[in-house]
Amino acid sequence: MSNEVKENGVSRRTVLKGAAIGGAGLLGGGTLLSSCGSDEATGPVKFTARTNDETGLKIAQALVDAYTAETGIEATMQGSGDTNAFQDGISQYLQGTPDDAFQWMAGFRTNFRADQGLLVDLSENIKNLGDQMPAGFVSGATNPTDGKQYIIPTTWYPWGLHYRKSTMQEIGLDPEGLYNWDDFMKLLEGTKKKGLIGYALGDKGGWEAMGTFSILNTRLNGYNYHIDLLNGRAKWTDPKTLDVFKQFEMLIPYMNKNVLDISWDGMRDLLLQKKCGAIMMGSWWANDFKAQSQADYDDLWIVPFPEINPEFGRDSIDAPVDGVVAAANGTNPEGGAAFAEWCGSENGMLAAQAAGDTSLYANSRLDSSGYDAFNKQKLAVIGEAKNVMNFLDRDCRNDFAGPIVGVQIQNFLKNPKDINKILEETQAAWDALPPLA
Known about the structure:
With 437 residues, the protein is α/β, with parallel strands linked by helices.
């Protein structure tokens, strides 16, 4: 159900296509639990939603309300505030007085904190969910250091090229006909002629542009090279890496000028306000289009990022898994674990769905046949790929991805002519990293 690639002592696990397209492998039937959570879980539970978005907070509030109604255990929710600041400060947060449970990301970002003793072992909670939790997600949630699970997967989503169908029609393009780079350039030129931003990008957070870099790398050089680059087996100074940035540079004339002044939500707003042609982003924010209007949501579409090198086609995609973890230093870690388990259960997913969540759910009991057109398209986008990745800043070392790669991509966006110096500095930074503890 998964690939495991050992890299510098860290395992990278990716859900395979066969498990990712909503078929029997990943979304097969499960057994409804008669009860959920530990009998020892008593006392109030505090939950942090990793969002400051109105729609996300509404969904999170629905979760805690439904949990309290079902279990009789008081649960309260607060938003994380600025999501970039929350992510960057997570270690300090967990070492202080964190809430009992919080929304987080599977992969290295969970496993690294688990190895530090900051997260609760949720292996028994995963077992309690039984075959509600498909093996592909269990594998993706497993810490390679000790074979335990520290996150309950709840949702997943593809990264892809998002646009409005109406905009594509206005410039004479087939809304689903964006297959290769030539098609993509027609989109960019067509939107530019209309006075729109062709390729909107916001990288204030330092991670958003990683999605563009990763997909360009896999489209040009293939999945294996991308994985090798992230883990030191390929060089940042290699001509293949330079080619990625040269391809990236081709997009800059079609971008908004304030790339480093806006974050992911600024990109979303440019698309929502019909000020751009396309954005490359994960699809978790589709709820925001629905909150604007059903018509806006119906106009939203996603396709795989276009082919560049026919050798690799469109065979790779980022499809990260999100979930809920429990903090070891929380006031009620057992209660946090039980709440995390409930969030991953059928009842938890149904509560989120009822609150308007349009995500793809990890729980096997959620019937994908009832998905709307956009969600079905997300499954199709994931299904086309042979190689499914998490995301650069989730799968690469934390002390390299954010502070080094993220900053250097920002430096590139400021001055693309400095790329050779930037890549030399990036490689030197990798070479200077200490062994993982």
